[in-house]
Amino acid sequence: MPINSLLGDNSVMQTIRARVAFHTRQHGFDRAAKQLMTGSNVAATDRYVADLFANWGDPLQQSDERFLRSCLAEARAVDGPILQCGTSLTTLVLGAICDQSPEQKKQLWCLEQDSHWANLMRSWLTEYQVGSAHVIHSRARMFNDYVWYSLDPNRLAKKYHLVICDGGRATVQGAIGTISRLHRRFAEKFVILIRNVTSQTDMKHLATWARTRNAACVLIDKTEGFVKIASKDMTPPLPETRNGAQALKTGR
Prior knowledge:
Elements: H1 3-9, H2 11-38, H3 42-56, H4 62-77, E1 82-85, H5 89-99, E2 108-112, H6 115-127, E3 133-137, E4 140-143, E5 146-149, E6 160-165, H7 172-182, E7 186-194, H8 200-212, E8 215-221, E9 226-231
Helix pairs in contact: 2-3, 2-5, 4-5, 7-8
């Protein structure tokens, strides 16, 4: 039997290879994270973000990349506090953007119901010296017909310019809970990015709420249920998305 075949079938060699691959990814993740924290060039930052996800073992899919790029673009554009419902690897990236803002006007507030994940995110933020991100652990609670976090909203910032509800770790009901519980804490000009909106009932709920705030509610990606709500004087509604999904017309 060829020596390569013997080595390939050997469980010890397989374990060694797995460990080498793990440490290689870990080193790549660490390098990309440190470059991200010190980088100021937008194009370079986007490259570091892609490397970060790839070395984490979760390469960006096209739909993930579209949502992430929207989050990063809006985070760079706003001039005030950001709220993220549900933490993820994106938390590290958003925190880096906030750290690079002048006079630290941007602060990232993150709500997480999983205590283990909240502690993991805090350790990452400490390790990479991200000082503008704050992770708050708060268990989920049922409020009438939606689920949201049990914390007192008074613990949060007074006004939020950007709110991100990623369906990966925050349910659509959580997004509805966010606008229900925190609508008084949205800045005059605000943007809300929501993913995983698949129910027509939830879409109508979001569109109706947007109309009461003179905001545009736009379906960016029908497959991913990616919805953007924004003050009309900030971002005009799109007539149609690239994949043919129609914008939700809220009117005035």
